[in-house]
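Fold sample X.
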Amino acid sequence: MSTTSFVTEDEVGIMLAAAGQAPSMHNTQPWRFEINGSVIDVLLDTDRALPAADLSNRFVRVGLGAAAFNLRVAAAMLGHETTLAIDPDPAVPDVVVRIFLADRRVPVAGLASLYGEVSRRFTYRGPMVDRPMSPRLMQLLIEAATSEHAELRWLDDEQRAGLGPIVRSADDRDVHEEDRLHERLRWIGGDRTAEGVPDSVLGPLPARAGAVRDLSAGVDIPHREHAAFEPTPVIAVLATADDDERAWVRAGMALQRVWLTATSYELAASFLNQALEYPALRDQVRTLIGRDAWPQLIIRLGYPTEGSGLTPRRPWNETLDAWR
């Protein structure tokens, strides 16, 4: 490692450890990093893609955007202003985000305040407390998405009812597609120490129909508890005006700003993204929210009834390809 770099080894560790705490589909952690002076590249790790469930790499790029956002948050805490470019070099398509660090000064207002939430954020797959979210908090989360060039659209009762059959159709497809089942077996279930989703954080099975995704669908995991999930979940769709590779990365950045902000208010979140993994069903969701935007993520938010374990993460130094 470099000894005369723009950033110190401690700073590198702080920034890459934060980036590695980002959410990713099935917790594959599909990122690699290269550092060249004051420039940090976030690269796609193709070995961690999900070709059966995510053929276009849309969710992979969402995860890379979330990792880039966490890196910016950690850099801000260290006093570095940041700017970024998405897909900066067509000749090197694996570089998805390039982050430019300014000289170190004082913690950067706004982003730096979210640093404490990076390690607290987790995907919560249990029931939520029957407690309404304040309109002001819902508006804050809308503003968080908007600041990263996305929209957060809260579903009303009619839209939530319309989403139910779409989610159930996706669940039914999930257990009948062999390629997806084999792919999930690689990443979900069992005891895991560095990647994937272990049994311990899958959450209970719903005692009745509920707005929750059972990631173990098609996989027999004994001794799981059952629980009654909230009958009227709070659900939002994160959407973008465009539906291209840059928009997917922006969606990941918006997701992470929304989620870290929500965490700071003791909210928890999980996903119903199975309804977006099939093009025909995604089109139905788009009709549901209005066809002026593209749905990228479906998020269930609320106050958790209990804590939940964190999914494992790789050591940051294992994600660093080069430091010059």
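Fold sample Y, listed below.
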Amino acid sequence: MLQFSVYDYITKAALNQYGVTQEQRSFLGHSGSLTFCIETQEEKFLLRIHQAISRHQDDVWHRPEVIESELLWLAALHRDTVVVVQEPIKNLQNRWVTQVVVDESKEVFYCSLLRWIDGNVLNTERTPQQAYQLGSLLAQLHQHSNQWQLPQNFVRPIYDKNRFQAALLALHPAVSQKLISAEDYSVLEAGVCRVQDMIGTLGQTQNNWGVIHADLHDGNYLFHNEELRPIDFARCGFGYYLYDVASSLQYLHPAVRSSFFEGYQVSRELPENYVQITEGFFIMALIDVLSFHVNNPEEHEGLSGTVKDVAKKHIPLYLQGRSFLFDKY
């Protein structure tokens, strides 16, 4: 990781290209990108330096055309819907993505700036009403995606069979590291094989496939006066809408998942066999998250425990054709 003096330089150089003079800067975190809260005399912004915490992570997320496409969807959501999102800002060159070159190393960094939105992340279990709101929110995002005319050169990663297979393979080194047992990995393989077969029957239609958030977990939406506001669209891409649903359901207690579906169906219809499809994507979403964390030593303990749970609680039931969505956490 670079020294913070270098990030000081990048921050100032980037903000100069927006004509923004910072009064105060607060470090927020570093995962897929480095994030700062920027305060001026008039307002607050979110500044992102698009560099992953792990060099092992796929750098596709940090290509300028991919970052720009995320910002185009955010701008469209801000313009077209009542959903409150972080509005992206163009720089003085009328570009969504700002390039900064560090003089000494000649390394290139890409940055983006978004308007700040108020709200809080709740660290408590979601109530049925909050789960209902989350379902309604995700349905609104999908409804917009379904109707939105994609801009030219819109480029985002694809959550398809190839990506899921790559996520499974990314976990394999954890077997030799003794983080995952060979037996549990075999169970994961069997589950993925069954899910791949299921995906093969779905096809890609306007109603089941489009641009999805792909990471709407409990830390990626804010509560503001009982209104839910989605944030962090950095993992958005093309995928099945029910994969997006499953990705969010991972973080909800099974007792409130039915409320999520009730909220979702206010805006969008679900297919007749939506529970079965969602359970397959639930397994894939878990594996995708695990593959994201496998190169972070701080996540290894949690990763090992999660794999054991998935291999013992979820996949065996799924392989037997028995439902787990409303019973297993």
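Sample Y note: The mean pLDDT is 93.
Also: Residues 182-202 form the longest helix (21 residues).
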